[in-house]
Write a structure and sequence with these properties.
Helix content: 25-40%
Strand order of the largest sheet: 6-7-8-3-9-10
Number of strands: 10
GO molecular function: ATP binding; ATP hydrolysis activity; transmembrane transporter activity
Distance between the termini: 12 Å
Bound molecules: adenosine-5'-diphosphate
Protein name: Putative ABC transport system ATP-binding protein
Keywords: ATP-binding, Cell inner membrane, Cell membrane, Membrane, Nucleotide-binding, Translocase, Transport
Organism: Bauldia litoralis
Order of helices and strands: EEEHEEHEHHHEHEEE
InterPro entries: AAA+_ATPase, ABC_transporter-like_ATP-bd, ABC_transporter-like_CS, MacB-like_ATP-bd, P-loop_NTPase
């Protein structure tokens, strides 16, 4: 079942009189409960694609559907509501509030959303049960990123979008962060998309999109990964 249906998606950035074609007519589907990984060189359009399906940016032309919502014609107000109710974001930098503990950082989200988990539950899901009372400065980079993941999943979004979540981490720590993301994908059935340069993740993805020069040039399906029911 397709959660996102993308057809002919183009994005042109205009800076002064310079035009950059970030996406050139992309067709793609993202499926319910799947983990999709986006690979490709810097500047190939991965972040632009993720930002558009996350409602952080809009298409220049083309169709972007999330279930029965047409994101390509949505107003700013509708996109804000869409992000709030349906999407969890994880970025390279964690954006935790330094004066709040791990638990309190997650509680900022859980206190304002209706169907949220308890902060303890979200932190346990990412393997940080023992760290709930720690402040960001007392946590390693990988642990801080896992708090950010807990914060994103705590509201039980249907969709998780992650832009280089391991970009600031060494590869060993990065694997722990990717493990936390695959765990939330499996346990919550969240439709997940991850941009990463970490080569290990290809094997755990359901689907890999290869980006090149504003296009998806190859889609590889992983037949061996057990599908969530
Ligand atoms: P990737 O995530 O694969 O590194 P991006 O989607 O960030 O690629 O960028 C695709 C192209 O669009 C690049 O040429 C980049 O410089 C350009 N671009 C991205 N964001 C903007 C922006 N806000 N304004 C102008 N150009 C941009
Ligand atoms: P709200 O639900 O309050 O409207 P937004 O829709 O602005 O929040 O953003 C959704 C989520 O994405 C929030 O968690 C916000 O912190 C995060 N976010 C949005 N844009 C960026 C960005 N450029 N860098 C980092 N985080 C961002």
């Amino acid at each position: 079942e397709a959660v996102f249906t993308i057809r002919g998606l183009s994005k042109i950035y205009q800076t002064g009189n310079v035009e950059v074609k970030a996406l050139r007519g992309v067709d793609a589907d993202l499926f319910h409960g799947e983990l999709t990984v986006m690979l490709g060189p810097s500047g190939s359009g991965k972040s632009t694609f993720l930002n558009i399906i996350g409602g952080l940016d809009t298409a220049t032309t083309g169709e972007v559907r999330y279930r029965d919502h047409d994101l390509s014609s949505a107003s700013d107000r509708e996109l804000t509501r869409y992000r709030r109710d349906h999407v969890g974001f994880v970025f390279q930098f964690y954006n935790l509030i330094p004066s709040l503990t791990a638990r309190e950082n997650v509680a900022l989200v859980t206190e304002i959303s209706r169907n949220a988990m308890r902060p303890e539950e979200a932190l346990e899901l990412v393997g940080l049960k023992e760290r709930i009372g720690h402040f960001p400065a007392q946590l390693s980079g990988g642990e801080q990123q896992r708090v950010a993941i807990a914060r994103a999943v705590a509201k039980r979004p249907e969709v998780m979008l992650c832009d280089e979540p391991t970009g600031a981490l060494d590869s060993k720590t990065g694997i722990l962060v990717l493990d936390a993301l695959t765990a939330t994908n499996k346990e919550l059935g969240t439709t997940t998309a991850i941009i990463t340069h970490n080569a290990t993740i290809g094997s755990i993805a359901d689907r890999v999109f290869h980006f090149s020069d504003g296009a998806i040039t190859e889609v590889i399906e992983n037949e061996t990964r057990l599908k969530p029911s």
